Amino acid sequence: MFYFMFFFWIAVMGLAWYAQKAAFRLEVGAEKAAQVQREKNWFQKLFYLGYSQYVHKHRLAFFTLKSKFIVMLLMLAVYPLAGSRSLEVTTNIYMAAVMVSFLVDGLALVCFEAELKQRDGLNLDASGDYIIIEADRVRLKLTWDNYQEEKKHWEAVKTSPKQKKRLRAIRRMETACWLAEKAIRDYYSYVDVLESEENRQQREADIQRLQAQYCELQELFCAEGRKDYDVFRYSRLLYAIEPFERRCSVCRQKMQQAKPKKKKALMEQLFREAAVFCDGIADRYVEHQKIGRADCFDCEEAVAAVLAVYDEVEAWMETIPHPGLESCMAYNYGAMYGNGLLPEERENRFPDMLPRGEGHIIYAYDCL
Amino acid sequence: MTGLTKPITKRNIVRRQSRGYFWGLTALAGIMSADYHEESILAKVVFFFKLMILVCLAVYLLSCKMLHYIRKQEGYLCTSMEEDMRGVRMQGFFSTGVEAVYAGDWYLLLSYYGVVAVNRRYIAGVKKIERHSEWRGRYSITPMLTLRITFQTVTQETMTFTTGNAWQAAEDLCSWLGMEPEERRE
What we know:
The complex is a heterodimer. Chain A is an all-alpha fold. Chain A has 13 helices and one strand; from the N terminus they run H-H-H-H-H-H-H-H-H-H-H-H-H-E. Chain B has helices at 10-34, 41-62, 64-77, 81-84, 167-177, and strands at residues 4-7, 89-91, 98-103, 106-110, 116-119, 123-134, 144-153, 158-164, 183-185. In chain B, a hairpin with a 2-residue loop joins strand 3 (98-103) and strand 4. In chain B, helix 1 runs antiparallel to helix 2 (41-62). The radius of gyration of chain B is 19 Å and the shape is globular. Classes of the chains: A mainly alpha, B alpha+beta.
C-alpha cells in the first residue's frame, strides 16, 4: 500500500505540474511561453516561481496549484516523521489526500484543455493560424533545439573513458530524436490547414533532417560496438533494411548447419522476421498517410526484400512441406494487398485472398 | 497495430464498438474483487469471474440491436456477412475516427461509438441523417457527439444505426448507395 501511495503521489505531483504548464500556455500562448521558459532556471521551472506577472485570468487556480505542489512535496518529506507513531493510519490519510488532489488537478487540467479547444474553435491568433497548431509548431522547433543541445553534451562527453557514460549520452540523443519525430507527426497531421507548397517543402526538409539524425545515431551506436542495435526500431515514420537483412542472414546460416528436424522451426522463424518487418512497413505507411505524404513514402525496396524472403521460404517448402505456414503466407499476401503494398505481378499468387471491388476510407471526427 | 490487420467478423465488430465499456467495466470488476475480502484467494478469483460474466453480458446487450439488424439482413437475403467480407481487413485496437469498409454489397462504418452495417440490396432509401448530442454525466464539459442514420428497408421497416461524428462518412455512404437522404439534421 505504501509503495502504491508513493508512486501515485509522485504521479499526481506530475499532473499538478502539467496543469500549471497548461494554464500558463493558455494565458500567454505557446510562443511566449517557450520564450519565458528559456529565461528561467530548473528550480524556477519546477516550482513555477516568478510567473505571477504573466498570469492574470486564472490567477487563483494557478496559485492554488503552485502552492499545492509545494505542500505535497513537503508532506512527502515529513512522511517518515508523521508515520513514526502509526504507519497504516498515516498512509490512509495520505491516500485520501492524494486522491482528492488527483481529482482537483485532473479537473483543472481538463478545464484548461477544454477552454483552449473552445477558444481554438472561435478565433485565430495574430498569424492567422489556430492556436493549437501554433503550439505544435513551437514544440517542433523546441525539439530540434533540444537535439542540438544533446549533441553538444555528446561532444563534451565523447572523449570520456567510461563507455557507460558515452552510451547514456547517445541514448539521450535518441530520445530527443524520437521526440522530434513525435512533434513532426503531431504538427503535420493538420493536413487540411497546412496545404500550401511552402509547408510541403518544409515537411520534406524536416523528414530529411530526421533521417539524417537517425543515420547519425546508428553510426554512433556502431562505433560503440552495438552493431545489432536498430535505432529505427521505435520509429513510426522511417525504417532501415540492413538490420532486417542481417537477422535473415543469421537465420540462413543457422539453416545451413541445422539438422533436418530443426529446419521447420527455423523456416518459421525466417518467415516471422519477414512478416513482422512487413507489418512495420504497413504501420509506417499509415502514419505517412496521416501526415499526407503517402505518395512520397518509398517502400518498394523494402517490399522487394520481404517478397524475396517469402520466395525463399516457398522454395524451402517444396522440400519440407508446411501447410500451416502456407496459409499464413496467403493471409499475409491478402494483408499486403489491403495495405496497398503488393506489386501487381504478385496478385496472381493467392487470388482467393484478394477480394475485388472493395474499398477502405478513414475519416477523422468533425471539429465543431 | 495501425495497419489493416483484423479480419471483419461479427465478433471483431462488437469488440470495436464496445471496447470502452469492456475495459472500463473490467477495471471496475478488478477493483471490486480487490476489495472483496475472503479467507481464500480462490473466492476472490471466482468473484472476479462472476463479475466478468456480467461484463460480457453487458457488452452483448449493448451490441444486441446492431447484431439483430445484421442477422435480419442476412436472413432476408440468404447471405452471410462474414463469408462475403472474407479477406477484407480493418484496423486494429488503436484505431481512431470512423472507418468505412465496403466490399461486394456490404458497407460498414466502424467506430468506437457504434457500427453501421448495411447491405445494398436490403436498403430502399435513407430517411434521415441526424447529428445527435448528449451530455453524459452531470459535470461533463463537452457533449458527446454521434451520428444517427435511419434507413428505410425493402420490408417497409426502419433501421437506425449510431456511428461516430464524421458527417462526410455518412454522405459517402449515401452516395455509394445512390440515394439522397430525405432529411438532414445537423
